[in-house]
Design a protein that fits this description.
Helices cover about 45% and strands about 0% of the residues. It contains 4 helices and no strands.
Length: about 100
């Protein structure tokens, strides 16, 4: 069974301003990851409501992730990254 989401629905014909991809400097923190996610969402032309529906999370949760405010489950963050195509890499360390 295929599920299709109409990503054009109900943003009242607002155009989404595409934000540039942030430059990573130093260790990744919540604020920087939020900027990467917001940038990817806007580059995909998705409003906050469409992206939240597409990712299967609440708008409030996506807002918290993008703004690095409040506590959010790691599983929600990883789901958003996966659905929007944001890749996180863990570099092995020497033992």
């Amino acid at each position: 069974m295929a599920v299709f989401i109409d990503l054009r629905r109900n943003e009242m014909a607002r155009t989404i301003k595409s934000l540039p991809t942030p430059i990573q400097q130093g260790p990744l923190d919540a604020e920087t990851l939020g900027k990467f996610i917001r940038s990817r969402r806007t580059q995909a032309g998705l409003g906050i409501h469409e992206a939240a529906a597409f990712c299967g999370i609440a708008v409030d949760t996506l807002t918290k992730i993008e703004k690095a405010k409040g506590d959010v489950k790691l599983s929600s963050i990883l789901k958003v990254c996966n659905m929007l195509g944001v890749t996180l890499n863990v570099v092995p360390w020497e033992q």
